[in-house]
Structures are given as C-alpha cells and as structure tokens.
Specification:
This protein is of the alpha/beta class. 28% of the residues lie in helices and 28% in strands. It has 12 helices and 20 strands. α6 packs parallel to α7 and α11 crosses α12. The chain is globular and about 70 Å long.
C-alpha cells in the first residue's frame, strides 16, 4: 500500500534515537532473559548509558558485558523494556517486523478454512511483539497498543502488516496507560488507514455472523480467545441454556445453533445485550437459531443467579464466563472466592445431569487453583461434577511465556 494512504500523523511521529541505549542488569535477572522472558522491569536495571525516550532500542548486557537481548524502551512503564529479540544481536528494521508478522499469520492459517475472518493476528508477547495486539475483523484490522514505545515504530510496522494481511481499514486502540502519555497526535479509536467508521462492523466466526464496535468497544470489540470453547458449547448444549456474563451473546448464539430450545443471555451491560439481540437477528437464516427462544436479562450475574434459583428456574446448560477477578497478586484469594461463589450459584440453577461450563481469564490464578476451587465448591454444595474436558487458549492465542497462559475453562456435568 502506498505510504500516502496512511494518516499523516504516522510520518509526524518521533523516530527512535539513532544510538541505542545500553543497559546493565542485576545478575539475578539474567536467567529469565536467557529463558526468553519478554519483560525487563525498572528495578532490574543497575546501569544505563543515557536517558531514553519511548521507543528507543535498548540493548541489555549481562554482568560480563555479553549481549542478552534488545527491546523497546518505555520510560513511563515499570516494565522498562519490552524484549523483541533474545540471545543473538539483530537489526530491528522493516524486514524484522515483516518476518515477525509473517510468522504470526502462518500460525493462524488454519482458521481461514473454518468460515472465519475474525481472529487475533498478533497476540503481543506470545508472538514476539510485546505490548501490541492486532485483531482482524473481516477487512478491518485493529491495532491495540499497551505501550507508547510502539509509536515511533508504526511507520515500519503498518506497511509490513498490510503486505501480509491486506485490509481496507486500520483502527488504532490504546490502553489506558498509553492514553495517559504523550500521544503525538495519536488517540484511541483513530482511523490510521481507510474510511471512517461510525457503526459496528460484521465479521464471521465458524460460519456465524457477529457485530463488533472496534472503535469504542471493550478491548478491540470482541473476545476471540473462547472460539473453540464456543464451538464445543454448540456441540454439547441442549434444552434450556443460561449464559451469564454473556456480553454480546457469543456463547448464547452457538448454543442456539447447536439446538438449544431457549437461551437466556444475562449481563450487567444493557448495550452489550442489545448487541446480543442483534447478533441473533443477523443469523436468523439458520433454522435452529430462528426457532430458539432468546431472552436477555440485564443485571449483576451473582444476583441474577440467586433470583433465578429463588424462582425455581432451572437450566440444562449453564455457562459462566466472568471477567478477570485478579489484576494483582493481592486479589488472587478474592478471585478464588468469587469462582467458588459462582460455582455454587450456577449449580443452584442447573438441572440434574446438566452441563456446567465455567471459565477463568485471570492469569494470576493458576489452572490447578481454579479447577480445585470449582470442583471443591461443587462438592461442598452437595453436587458432584464429572469432568468432560479442560480447555484453554484458541489457536490464535498462543502461549509464549508463563504469564501468557491465562484462559482456563471446565466442561462438566452435575450428577445430582
């Protein structure tokens, strides 16, 4: 694509310093970097050659002045360097970005055979591009940045991206941290390539159509990581289905296509539930979806399930996909208590022999702790769960380092 098609702000962005930063670190941190960890924290640095600007390339040396890694410097973040390359020195140039993006696209190639044009093209650290997410929504690409260190490199990243994944539009999304720093003319929701977008767009996942507000919606507008879990729900769900924390009703829609008689989508967000209603309307050509009774219920998930239980309303399938409860280590215990509470509440609305699907997207909560908590809460509640399957990340959410493993999902039946 011709450079003139990019928003003029791209060429006005500052360029990284011509001279690389040299950083020397504490000996205790060297092993993590040798093992490929993508982050260097501020407190690990013992010596720095000069003050750095966002996006400067920082070379990290060990105690014997040997090369360890090179990455993007961010003076505003406690993660001072996002590592791009370990072990061997290299030039971080347009060819380097092109190769990284090509490798990421290759991993997602199988999705193109599944009636799918909505997926995560770049999964940040896990694809070797820390602090950058790129999601594809049909002919629109959404680039979400979690660090301003990427700003000076967009002039190299965007042309490579369009060579590998041609698109009509590129939308920029910024994390709260990135929005709080100097933007040099960049802002959240900005169109960097293509026409403006004043409405939600439509994309396809496993043959189903979905709406996504990629300019103002949560994250980039949709959650792709549960794609395979949604497909499994479509195979297993039956009868009456309850989908709490339903957001825009993706699990609900799969359940309806799979043959559920009725689906109740419950969420605290009325706009999200309205999108769920619209998603059902988009797919009425499917006879199962057309005949399924779809209800929406606005309210807190905990209170919703208590109320349903008090009314004696029971379901054949209950899906519980809450947001992250533990954004710090101090919140882990509270998160586990919330998962236990949700398990008890879900079982209170689940018929004998019914299917429970419950997930965690809290990276700080280990898989062992999550599954033990759910199974233990069920037992304490007098309901024994028979596990069917434990699942994790979809193919477009590879795991490249320990903190990258966040998604856990349990499929189980309640025996009585």
């Amino acid at each position: 694509m011709n450079p003139q098609t990019f928003h003029p702000v791209i060429e006005q962005l500052p360029r990284p310093g011509e001279k690389r930063l040299a950083l020397h670190i504490k000996p205790g941190v060297e092993a993590a970097l040798r093992g490929g960890h993508p982050w260097l924290f501020e407190q690990a640095i013992v010596k720095q050659s000069r003050e750095g600007q966002p996006g400067d390339l920082a070379v990290i040396f060990d105690r014997k002045k040997r090369f360890l890694a090179i990455g993007l410097y961010d003076p505003f973040s406690p993660i001072r360097v996002k590592i791009l390359q370990h072990h061997e020195p290299t030039e971080i140039n347009p060819s380097w970005f092109h190769n990284k993006l090509t490798a990421a696209a290759k991993i997602r190639q199988p999705l193109l055979e599944t009636q799918t044009n909505g997926y995560r093209l770049v999964h940040g650290e896990n694809d070797g591009l820390p602090g950058m997410i790129i999601d594809r929504y049909a002919d629109t690409l959404v680039v979400k940045l979690y660090t301003v260190a990427w700003f000076p490199h967009l002039r190299n990243v965007l042309p490579a991206l369009l060579q590998i994944q041609p698109a009509e539009r590129i939308v920029l999304r910024l994390s709260r941290a990135a929005q709080s720093q100097p933007g040099f003319g960049l802002f959240d929701g900005q169109i960097l390539v293509g026409d403006s977008l004043n409405q939600s767009l439509i994309f396809e996942e496993n043959g189903l159509l979905f709406l996504a507000d990629v300019v103002k919606g949560h994250k980039t507008g949709f959650f792709f990581d549960h794609r395979e879990n949604r497909a499994l729900v479509g195979q297993l769900a039956c009868g009456d289905v309850l989908d709490v924390f339903s957001y825009s009703g993706a699990f609900s829609l799969y359940a309806a296509r799979g043959g559920a008689n009725s689906v109740l989508s419950a969420d605290v967000s009325a706009p999200a539930l309205e999108t769920a209603r619209e998603n059902f309307a988009l797919n009425m050509a499917n006879p199962n979806i057309a005949k399924a009774r779809h209800e929406i219920l606005v309210g807190d998930a905990f209170e919703t399930m208590r109320d349903l239980k008090s009314k004696g309303r029971l379901f054949d399938t209950v899906i519980v996909d809450p947001p992250s409860f533990a954004k710090s280590s101090a919140e882990i215990l509270g998160a586990l208590e919330s998962y236990a509470s949700l398990t008890r509440l879900a079982l209170g609305t689940l018929k004998k022999g019914g299917l429970l699907v419950i997930a965690s997207c809290s990276s700080r909560v280990t898989a062992d702790d999550f599954y033990r908590t759910v199974l233990g809460a069920a037992e304490q509640n007098g309901r024994r769960l028979t596990e069917m399957k434990r699942t994790g990340h979809a193919i477009d959410h590879p795991i490249g380092f320990p903190e990258g493993a966040y998604l856990k999902c349990l499929f189980a039946t309640a025996d009585h």
